[in-house]
Amino acid sequence: MLRDAVRALSEAKIAPFAAEVDEEARFPQEALDALVAADLHAVHVPEEYGGAGADALATVIVIEEVARVCASSSLIPAVNKLGSLPVVLSGGEDLKKKYLGPLAKGDGMFSYCLSEPDAGSDAGGMKTKAVRDGDSYVLNGVKRWITNAGVSEYYTVMAVTDPDLRTKGISAFVVEKGDEGVSFGAPEKKLGIKGSPTREVYLDNVRIPADRLIGAEGTGFATAMKTLDHTRITIAAQALGIAQGALDYASGYVKERKQFGKPVADFQGVQFMLADMAMKLEAARQLTYSAAARSQRVSDGGDKEHLTFFGAAAKCFASDVAMEITTDAVQLLGGYGYTRDYPVERMMRDAKITQIYEGTNQIQRIVMARNLP
């Protein structure tokens, strides 16, 4: 029922704007409005803070179905979870009430500020600093590759509070868009997900109340890594949706397109391509759903269940599969697949980022090797 509802909404309210959003590289406001109206923009927020209280698997299904028609729009529910999960996992009750309530109502989106110009895969090498000054912290630094920056109202920012302790000296904070000293760089000109703005976030003597610290000082990096264990699965979900959209379109096309007097779908070489695409997609889906179930059990207080391994495996495998399936979908459409008149070239461009963000797939393989079940 959830899948049917999200698919119907996505096809009616989001899909009609997907090509335009990509072409104009503009934020998909229609998608945000539709998702907020249906309470699907941040389904992970617990009920006690006004949210839908969706579990990890339901959240995956929402993201997957939106990504099937528009990858940029799927980053609304995905990044709302990424940005706010540190508050859910490590924030005090007052902080949760203050920020999860507005997020659940749709009053503001949440972004996640971990990467920096010189700290990408090596997030522990960040240079953004937070200095305690009485009842405040003063933040200075630059965050790069921040999804939905400038549109989101709230930002979870990782900053160094004790430079001598490396990762154990990193703390997490909530910064608001309207805080004095917060500004944004120009939107990056990207290969794909053009409807989701990616910008630098500049913190210039940003003074925030000390009660916006998430958890205790020095726990920010651990919170960031715990967050990624859960949210890498949402990137796997996005990859699934993109791949499903490409497979659906290509499968329909080859049944209609005729060459040598018969549908292209009747040729065994094409049938084998479609079979491999569907098989790999279903394998990726089962791995992703299994990882989501583990994520939920951990969130409910269960043991870790090798979540770090399964989260990395789902993200890595699903994104590799999505890149392969979208590339094959372009091939199946031939010359038409290479044009912007058909959606599969957009899906191929969108799929690429799923192999890169929230940890490159090379990093995922390191994570998996270190956390073998």
Q: Major sheet, described briefly? A: 4 strands, mixed
* Strands side by side in the biggest sheet: 1-4-5-8
Order of helices and strands, N to C?
HHHHHEEEEEEEEHEEHHHH
Strand content: 15-25%
Report Rg.
21 Å
Number of helical regions: 10
Number of strands: 10
- pLDDT under 50 segments (min length 5)? none
Structural class: alpha+beta
Shape: globular
End-to-end distance, in Å? 34 Å
What is the typical, i.e. mean, pLDDT? 98
Helical proportion, percent range? 40-55%
Oligomer: single chain
What does this structure look like?
The protein is built from ten helices and ten strands. It is 52% helix and 15% strand. With 373 residues, it is an alpha+beta fold. Strands 1-4-5-8 form a four-stranded mixed beta sheet. It has a four-stranded antiparallel beta sheet with strand order 2-3-7-6, with no helix packed on it. Strands 9-10 form a two-stranded antiparallel sheet. Helix 3 (56-69) packs across helix 6 (220-256), helix 4 packs antiparallel against helix 6 (220-256) and helix 6 packs antiparallel against helix 9 (344-353). The model has no long low-confidence stretch (mean pLDDT 98).
Concise overview:
Helices cover 52% and strands 15% of the residues. With 373 residues, it is α+β, with helices and mostly antiparallel strands.
Q: Descriptors for this entry?
A:
alpha+beta, four-stranded antiparallel beta sheet, four-stranded mixed beta sheet, 373 residues, globular, 52% helix
